[in-house]
């Protein structure tokens, strides 16, 4: 794993829990274990090809190394 983590997203779990205000039901988007349900996109590698582990889950937090430009989406 790349040790140069430049972005840690500890509040992501809050952002990734979507609430339907009308019904009060919550849909948890991030399970805290892996990126199941997400697609990763890297400029040079494409969709769901992350050989350098730019995106990873560590201790319930999504970590982004910043080695390559990209994003992840649901």
Q: Estimate what percentage of residues fall within beta strands.
A: 35-45%
**Strand elements, count:** 8
Structural class: mainly beta
**Helix share bin:** under 10%
Strand order of the largest sheet: 1-7-6
Q: Give the count of helical stretches.
A: 1
Shape: elongated
* Ends distance: 24 Å
SSE arrangement:
Blueprint: E1 7-9, H1 12-15, E2 17-20, E3 25-28, E4 39-42, E5 46-47, E6 55-58, E7 61-64, E8 70-73
Antiparallel strand pairs: 1-7, 2-3, 4-5, 4-8, 6-7
Q: Would you kindly provide a written description of the structure presented here, covering whatever features stand out?
A:
The protein is mostly beta strands. Helices cover 5% and strands 39% of the residues. It has one helix at residues 12-15; strands spanning 7-9, 17-20, 25-28, 39-42, 46-47, 55-58, 61-64, 70-73. The protein has a 3-stranded antiparallel β-sheet, with no helix packed on it. Strand 6 and strand 7 (61-64) form a beta hairpin. The longest helix has 4 residues, at 12-15. It is elongated, with a radius of gyration of 13 Å. Residues 1-14 have low confidence and may be disordered.
Brief synopsis:
This protein is mainly β and 74 residues long.
Keywords:
three-stranded antiparallel β-sheet; disordered N terminus
